[in-house]
C-alpha cells in the first residue's frame, strides 16, 4: 500500500511537475513538523486509486498495441492488394502465353503439313534430273558417234559418185557422147577435183590442232622495271574522285582495262557488258548474249577480243572486229566466277563454283586441262605474266599455284581463316596478294613460298584486289562501300570513300594514273 504523500509525489513526478513537487514537499513537511496534519491525512491511499492507476497504465499499453495492430493490418491490406494485382497480371499473361502457344502449335502443324508435300516433289525432280542427265549423256555419245562416222560417209559417197562416171577416153567420148569431146586431161582434172573436195571436207570435219604452250623461259620483262615511289604516295592528297559513270542497271561485278587504249570494259548483274572511254566516260560498245549475270571479263593481250564469265556456266569470247560472240565454252557445271588470258593469247583460264578451274584452247576450241584440287568454289584465277603459271583462290581458304601445261598444283598457300575471294600477282610476278571474306589481306613471297605481311581491313568482306603498276600499292574493294589502299612495304591503310553501296571490283590502268572501281550502286568511279 502507498501513503498519500507518496502517491501525490509519484503523480507530480509522472506528470513532470517538478516545481509543484518542491512546493508540495515544503508545505507538507512544514505542516508535519507543526503537527497540523491529522492521522488520516498521512495514512495509506485507498486501494481504489491504486487500482485505477494500474488500469490506466494497462489501457495505455493496450492502446499502443492497438495502434501497432492497425498499422500491421494496413500493411497487410496493401500487400494483399498488390498480390491480387500481380495475380491478375500473371493470370492474364498466362492466358496470352497459352494463346500464343496454341497458335504456334497450329502454325507448326500447318508447316509440317506443307513441308510434307516437298519430299515427293523433290524425289520427282531428282528423278527427272537424273533422267535428263542420262539422256544428255546418251545424246552426247550418239553425237560423237555420228561425228566420227561423217568422214567415212563422205569418202563413201565420193567413191560411189566416182564409180558412176565412166572412164573417159578419146574414142569412148566420141562414141558415147556425140557432139562433145572429152580429152584425157578432163579425166585428170575431174579426179583431182574429186580428191580436192574430199580433202576439203575432211578439213571441215577434223578439229583444228591444239595450240602449243610457249616455252617457260622464266623471263619477265617487267622484272627489269626500276622501283620508284608510287605517285599516289608522293602526291599531296593522294587519289581523288574525278568522274562517276552511271554504267549499268544493276551491280557492276567486273572491270577490265584495255592493254593499249584508254578504254575500260565492265560487266554487270544485268547480263550485259559495256566498254567506256576513260576518263571521259563515253560509251563505246555494248554486248548482250549471256542469260544470267556476268561475273568477270578480261581483254585479249592485243586488245582485239574480250572474254566474259557468267552465272549461266559459260565463258564467251567476243571479237570486236566481227562485233559478235565468236566462241562459247560451256563445260563448267556451275556458275563461272573469273577469267584470265594467257600472255600469248591462245589460252584462257576460268574458275567456277564447281570446285575446278579450266584452261581453254582458242585454236582447237576445247578444254585443254581441268585443274582439280580445291574442295570448294574457286573464286578467282589469274595467269602470271609471260609464264605458264597461274594462281587461284578458293572458298576452301587456300591459294594455289598451278602449271597450265600439266594441270598440276605446284604450291598451296595456307593461312586464311575464311573464304578467299581473290588472288593476284603483282606486275613483276614476285608477290601474290590475296583477300578473304573477313577483310584480311595477305602478301605471299613466291620465291620463299611464305607469307610476308598480313593486313586487316575488315570486318567487312574484301571482294577484289589490284596492284598498281609499281607494285608498292594495293587497292582493296571493300563491302563497306569504301576502297582500302594498302602500302605493301609498311602495311599502312588509307580509305577512299565515294560509293553508295558495296565496292565489287577495282583496277589500275597501265600507267597507274587512274584507279577504277565498280560497285553495287551500278556505277563506275574514276579516281585520279
Automatic annotation (TrEMBL):
WD repeats: from-to residues: 245-286, 287-328, 329-370, 371-412, 496-528
GO biological process per UniProt: axoneme assembly
Assigned keywords, A-Z: Coiled coil, Repeat, WD repeat
Keyword Coiled coil applies: yes
Superkingdom: Eukaryota
InterPro entries, alphabetized: AH/BAR_dom_sf, WD-F-box_domain-protein, WD40/YVTN_repeat-like_dom_sf, WD40_PAC1, WD40_repeat_CS, WD40_repeat_dom_sf, WD40_rpt
Sequence ranges of Polar residues compositional bias: 184-203
Coiled-coil residues: 66-114
SUPFAM superfamilies in alphabetical order: BAR/IMD domain-like (SSF103657), WD40 repeat-like (SSF50978)
GO cellular component: axonemal central apparatus
Region (Disordered) location: 184-218
Protein name, per record: Uncharacterized protein
Species assigned in the record: Trichoplax adhaerens (Trichoplax reptans)
Amino acid at each position: 500500500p502507498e501513503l498519500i504523500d507518496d502517491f501525490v509525489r509519484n503523480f507530480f513526478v509522472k506528470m513532470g511537475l517538478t516545481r509543484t513537487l518542491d512546493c508540495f514537499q515544503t508545505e507538507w513537511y512544514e505542516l508535519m513538523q507543526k503537527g497540523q496534519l491529522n492521522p488520516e491525512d498521512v495514512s495509506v491511499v485507498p486501494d481504489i486509486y491504486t487500482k485505477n492507476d494500474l488500469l490506466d497504465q494497462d489501457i495505455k499499453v493496450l492502446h499502443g498495441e492497438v495502434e501497432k495492430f492497425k498499422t500491421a493490418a494496413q500493411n497487410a491490406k496493401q500487400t494483399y492488394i498488390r498480390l491480387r494485382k500481380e495475380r491478375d497480371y500473371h493470370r492474364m499473361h498466362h492466358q496470352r502465353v497459352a494463346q500464343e502457344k496454341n497458335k504456334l502449335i497450329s502454325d507448326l502443324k500447318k508447316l509440317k503439313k506443307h513441308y510434307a508435300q516437298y519430299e515427293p516433289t523433290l524425289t520427282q525432280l531428282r528423278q527427272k534430273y537424273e533422267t535428263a542427265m542420262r539422256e544428255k549423256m546418251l545424246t552426247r555419245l550418239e553425237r560423237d558417234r555420228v561425228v566420227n562416222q561423217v568422214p567415212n560417209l563422205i569418202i563413201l559417197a565420193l567413191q560411189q559418185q566416182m564409180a558412176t562416171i565412166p572412164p573417159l577416153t578419146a574414142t569412148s567420148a566420141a562414141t558415147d557422147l556425140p557432139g562433145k569431146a572429152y580429152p584425157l586431161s578432163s579425166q585428170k582434172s575431174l579426179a583431182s577435183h574429186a580428191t580436192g573436195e574430199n580433202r576439203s571436207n575432211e578439213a571441215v570435219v577434223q578439229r583444228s590442232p591444239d595450240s602449243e604452250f610457249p616455252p617457260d623461259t622464266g623471263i619477265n620483262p617487267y622484272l627489269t622495271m626500276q622501283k620508284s615511289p608510287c605517285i599516289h604516295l608522293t602526291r599531296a592528297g593522294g587519289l581523288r574522285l574525278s568522274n562517276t559513270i552511271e554504267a549499268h542497271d544493276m551491280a557492276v561485278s567486273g572491270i577490265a582495262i584495255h592493254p593499249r587504249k584508254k578504254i575500260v570494259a565492265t560487266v554487270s548483274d544485268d547480263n550485259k557488258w559495256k566498254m567506256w572511254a576513260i576518263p571521259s566516260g563515253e560509251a563505246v560498245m555494248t554486248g548482250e548474249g549471256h542469260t544470267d549475270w556476268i561475273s568477270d571479263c578480261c581483254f585479249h593481250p592485243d586488245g582485239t577480243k574480250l572474254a566474259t564469265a557468267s552465272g549461266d556456266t559459260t565463258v564467251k569470247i567476243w571479237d570486236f572486229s566481227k562485233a559478235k560472240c565468236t566462241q562459247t565454252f560451256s563445260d563448267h557445271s556451275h556458275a563461272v566466277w573469273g577469267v584470265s588470258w594467257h600472255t600469248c593469247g591462245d589460252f584462257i583460264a576460268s574458275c567456277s563454283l564447281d570446285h575446278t578451274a579450266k584452261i581453254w584452247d582458242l585454236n582447237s576450241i576445247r578444254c585443254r586441262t581441268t585443274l582439280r584440287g580445291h574442295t570448294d568454289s574457286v573464286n578467282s584465277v589469274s595467269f602470271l605474266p609471260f609464264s605458264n603459271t597461274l594462281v587461284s583462290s578458293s572458298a576452301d581458304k587456300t591459294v594455289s599455284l598451278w602449271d597450265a601445261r600439266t594441270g598440276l598444283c605446284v604450291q598451296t598457300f595456307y593461312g586464311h581463316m575464311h573464304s578467299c575471294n581473290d588472288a593476284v600477282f603483282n606486275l613483276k610476278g614476285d608477290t601474290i596478294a590475296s583477300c578473304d571474306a573477313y577483310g584480311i589481306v595477305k602478301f605471299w613471297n613466291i620465291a620463299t613460298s611464305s607469307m610476308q605481311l598480313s593486313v586487316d581491313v575488315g570486318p567487312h568482306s574484301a571482294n577484289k584486289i589490284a596492284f598498281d603498276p609499281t607494285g608498292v600499292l594495293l587497292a582493296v574493294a571493300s563491302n563497306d562501300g569504301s576502297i582500302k589502299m594498302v602500302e605493301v612495304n609498311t602495311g599502312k591503310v588509307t580509305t577512299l570513300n565515294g560509293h553508295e553501296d558495296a565496292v565489287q571490283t577495282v583496277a589500275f590502268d597501265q600507267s597507274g594514273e587512274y584507279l577504277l572501281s565498280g560497285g553495287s550502286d551500278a556505277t563506275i568511279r574514276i579516281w585520279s
